[in-house]
Amino acid sequence: MAYGINAAAARLRRLVGKAGGVVPPPAKTRAALVLRIENAEMLRASLGPRALDRLVEALALRLTAELRFVPQARFPGQTELYGLLAVRRSSALPGHLAQLGAICRSPVDLGEIRVTPVVNAVIVSDDGGRAGQAALYAFGRDALDACSPLTQGGQLRFVEYSREEPPLRAEPLFSPDQVQCRFQPQICCDTGRVVGLSVLAGIEHPELGPLDLADFQTRLSDEVLGAAQRAVLRQALSALRGWDRMGLQVPVVTLPLGDRVLADPAFTEAVLWELDRLELEPARLEIEVTEPIGRSGGRAPVVENLQRLCSNGCRIAIGDFGSGQAGLDDIRLLRVSRVRVGHGFTAGCDRRVDQQRMILAILALAEHLRLATLADGVATIDEKSFLSQIGFGAIQGRAVVPPQTAREMDEVLTALETSLPPQFGLSRRA
Questions:
Q1: Which of 226, 237, 312, 317 has a CA 20 to 30 Å removed from the CA of 121?
Q2: Contacts of 386 (CB under 8 A, 6+ apart)
């Protein structure tokens, strides 16, 4: 059986004392700790692999010092910890569980920065002390898989080892109908017209409220993430088809996808099937990949699937251009048509000279490579004014138009079209 921290403490107290007397403790209690950093991929991308290893090592050292944790050997890059707790009686476990919570929710000092990782952890107790280490670790790992990766602060569990009764199974994290799309217009810097809509995927969770899929997708399994992205794909393309019927001009929708999804050929089939089902031209879907390409899903399958989408007519864009590791060969190989410059470069660009120099260098490179450009994360009116005039093809952000639901976007698109002067062309007289 598995318990939360409060229920576990009450359960453990009942093991050592009942009404009117004290129950003798077992001759021996063995306990194991299984711990996993749930946002490891995000930390690896932001801190780097070496800093992440230092974080895991610092966490293990603190567990050793404060909980008498005896860890197993860990491979570089591994973000799970396994080990035994030096306890002899089950009465000591409530204190260990409380102390474990304090450790997991405290920031880890890496010298130059302090980082608080999202940690899920399980203490496995064997009152008889007969189970081997491998059995305790496997039981704890199964219980760890039942913890939700969606919680911001992580989860702690106490599990009683049983050969007959498996730990609690993981409940579905969310259902497909809880996946919700929002759309953010991309506005042309020359004409002021909508050149596309970026798709922002989220989850309307009944307990945790609205969640941004991008914030926790690295903590989801491939199966769950793939199902969520399929729901996003269907919603985005169905909305695009609906705007066509309303006579609203939306040339393209941009769908950001991670390499774990792009490595799955079944998702590529789903993209092509949805486009055909809704009778949409493939060129109206832009797949945005984030640098570096193929880091998690494997480079070869990601490139193969992107090339297939491109050969069928879909557009390919690179997100966060200039801040990743994609090379010029990737741009040629994938026939990239546009790059998105993220908030890391656009923030404060109206007043920071260093930002302006970097932006100008990126724009010059994009021009030489004949790539369209999109400035993202425009947060202030001053940033909007600067980026509109410096040479970007289009801009997007809260200072331009904030994200909207599909229903809200109906009104936004109508208002944008009616506010612009009619297009006209100059023709020569005969």
A1: 226
A2: 349, 350, 356
Phi and psi for 286 in degrees, rounded to 5?
-110, 120
Coil vs helix vs strand at 219: helix
Is residue 131 within 8 A of residue 162, CB to CB? The reply is no
pLDDT reported for residue 425: 57
Q: Where in 133-284 does DSSP place strands (E)? A: 156-160, 179-188, 194-205, 209-212, 253-257
Cα angle for residues 326, 329, 330 (degrees, 5° grid): 50
By C-alpha distance, which of 286, 274, 290, 269 is closest to 241?
274
E strands within 108-230?
108-109, 114-115, 119-126, 156-160, 179-188, 194-205, 209-212
**Rounded mean pLDDT, 95-108:** 86
All structural domains of the chain with their residue ranges? 28-160, 171-419
Q: Is 312 or 6 the better-scoring residue by pLDDT?
A: 312
Task: Please write the tens of the pLDDT for every residue from 268-313.
Answer: 999 999 999 999 999 999 999 875 676 665 788 999 999 999 999 9
Q: How far apart are CA 24 and CA 389, in angstroms?
A: 79
Question: Is residue 195 classed as helix, strand or coil in its secondary structure?
Answer: strand
- pTM for the predicted model, two decimal places: 0.72
Could you tell me how far CA 419 lies from the centroid of its own chain?
Answer: 36
Instruction: Count Cβ neighbours within 10 Å for each residue of 1-40 and write b for 16 or more, e otherwise.
Output: ebbebeebbebbeebbeeeeeeeeeeeebbbbbbbbbbbb
**Cα 374 to the center of its chain, rounded Å:** 22
Q: Which CATH topology does 171-419 take? A: TIM Barrel (3.20.20)
| Helix%, strand%, coil% for the chain, nearest 5 | 45, 20, 35
**Topology at the third CATH level for domain 28-160:** Alpha-Beta Plaits (3.30.70)
